[in-house]
């Protein structure tokens, strides 16, 4: 029995001149156990929320990095294509090299955009797709 329950039992004994019965002490113990259980559940929810917030911030950070990386890569490829097409400073690449560079860039950009969209909109097996209980909380799989 905790200190709270013991001190309450002592006060009951002093105040009424009789010892409380075991059922009253059991009720106090059960209520205290329920409160402890609720506090533990709240702590778990708070920790889960912190984790989700941290994950969201990390996704934002890496999404920005990927976006700017792809944007810079596209600008570089565009500069190479323009320099080769207009023969700026006598820069010239064979047609197959330009075709490979352009097709590789398009495929790479598509993959990166697909990865970003999957991360942002919670693709398969994500937290967003977890079923909810009646009280609105998500169930663990």
Q: What is the arithmetic mean of pLDDT?
A: 78
Helix fraction by DSSP (H/I, runs of at least 4): over 70%
Q: What is the β-strand count? A: 0
Uncertain regions spanning at least 5 consecutive residues: none
Distance between the termini: 35 Å
Proportion in β-strands: under 5%
Largest sheet: none
Task: Based on Cα principal axes, name the global outline.
Answer: rod-shaped
Helix and strand element order = HHH
Assembly state: single chain
- Rg (C-alpha, Å): 32 Å
Helical stretch tally: 3
Which structural class matches the secondary elements?
mainly alpha
Topology:
Blueprint: H1 3-16, H2 22-85, H3 95-120
Q: What's this, in brief?
A:
The chain is built from three helices and no strands.
What would your notes on this structure say?
- The protein is mostly helical and 141 residues long.
- The protein is 74% helix and 0% strand.
- It contains 3 helices and no strands.
- It has helices at residues 3-16, 22-85, 95-120.
Features:
mainly alpha; 0% strand
């Amino acid at each position: 029995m905790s200190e709270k329950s013991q001190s309450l039992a002592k006060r009951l004994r002093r105040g009424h001149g009789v010892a409380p019965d075991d059922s009253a002490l059991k009720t106090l113990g059960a209520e205290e156990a329920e409160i402890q259980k609720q506090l533990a559940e709240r702590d778990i929810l708070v920790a889960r929320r912190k984790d989700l917030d941290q994950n969201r911030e990390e996704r934002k950070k890496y999404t920005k990095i990927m976006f700017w990386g792809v944007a810079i890569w596209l600008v570089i490829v565009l500069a190479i294509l323009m320099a080769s097409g207009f023969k700026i400073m006598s820069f010239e690449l064979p047609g197959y090299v330009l075709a490979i560079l352009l097709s590789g860039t398009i495929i790479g950009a598509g993959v990166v955009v697909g990865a970003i969209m999957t991360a942002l909109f919670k693709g398969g097996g994500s937290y967003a797709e977890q079923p909810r209980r009646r009280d609105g909380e998500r169930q663990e799989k």
